[in-house]
Design a protein that fits this description.
Strand order of the largest sheet: 6-7-8-3-9-10
Radius of gyration: 20 Å
Oligomer: single chain
Number of strands: 10
Structural class: alpha/beta
Order of helices and strands: EEEHEEEHHHEHEHEEHHH
Largest sheet: 6 strands, mixed
Length: 276
């Protein structure tokens, strides 16, 4: 299986009034084509920072993101992101919000074709009946479905998800997880999702990238998720290895100590400190 997405020595330093803050340090990972990878860790461990750099919304201080052998330093049509909050334009209907993404695709100039495509993607995520409503008329869960439809409508190769279900109640979160799995199986996207929810990561992902606590968060371990697909929640929860794997992840999050290791980033920090 090809490796279209790589993180190589990715480090991010933020300048603060009290000096450099190292959010993530020397992050290395490879994501296979069509794979569902979850980046898992406590809040504040730099998960969203890594995803933002993958999306091209931020730049690494050292290292970076390689797609198909070429380093990327900005946004691109091959990547689409869904954030924690829906981020829909409030004066536009669900259909119009999704149409904005469709309109960016080559060959989609006619309004009639754009609207038809928008309706198709809303149907894919199960909210076709919300097409004519503005965000304020929709539940938060439905708004996130519209956000997912908008991301899919851009027809990206890589779907990036920044804790998209974290603001939802448990029942709605479970429903949208199932929707996401179904859509992923149908569209064969490569997905990178950040989450702090162990059960969510185990249910959705093929592999877990476990982050140590920040600052200077690093990849502490990478675990394969052995559950067969397609997945059924009850069947997954009923597996004996589910509970042992869940325990291993929780033990990592609770007990893994942050251990810094020398890298070129240490030289940068030393030079910045000496210059002050």
């Amino acid at each position: 299986m090809s490796i279209p997405l790589e993180l190589t020595g990715l480090s991010k330093v933020f300048d603060t009034p009290t000096g450099p803050f190292v959010a993530v340090k020397d992050v290395n990972a490879k994501v296979k084509a069509g794979e569902f990878v979850a980046i898992l860790g406590h809040s504040g461990c730099g998960k969203s920072t890594v995803l933002s750099i993958i999306a091209g919304l931020d730049q690494a201080t050292l290292g970076g993101v390689i797609i198909d052998g070429t380093e990327v330093v900005g946004p691109g049509a091959e990547r689409a992101i869904v954030f924690q909050a829906p981020c829909l334009l409030p004066w536009m209907t669900a259909r119009e919000n999704v149409r904005l993404a469709v309109a960016q695709r080559p060959g989609m100039r006619r309004l009639r074709d754009q609207l038809a495509a928008a309706d198709r993607y809303l149907a894919i995520v199960g909210v076709a009946d919300a097409a004519g409503q503005i965000p304020a008329q929709l539940s938060l869960g439905t708004q996130q479905c519209v956000s997912l439809a908008r991301a899919l409508a851009a027809e990206p190769r890589f779907l990036l998800l920044d804790e998209p279900f974290s603001q939802l109640d448990s029942l709605t979160r479970y429903e949208l997880q199932d929707t996401l799995l179904r859509v992923w199986e149908e569209t064969d996207k490569t997905v990178v999702m950040v989450t702090h929810d162990v059960d969510e990561a185990l249910y959705l992902a093929d592999r877990l990238i476990l982050m140590t606590d920040g600052p200077e968060a690093m990849v502490g371990d990478v675990l394969d998720v052995p559950f067969p697909r397609p997945r059924n929640r009850a069947a997954v929860l009923g597996r004996s290895d589910y509970h042992s794997l869940r325990r291993a992840v929780i033990d990592f999050l609770e007990h893994h100590a942050h251990q810094s290791r020398p890298s070129a980033l240490d030289d940068i920090l030393t030079q910045r400190t000496a210059a002050k």
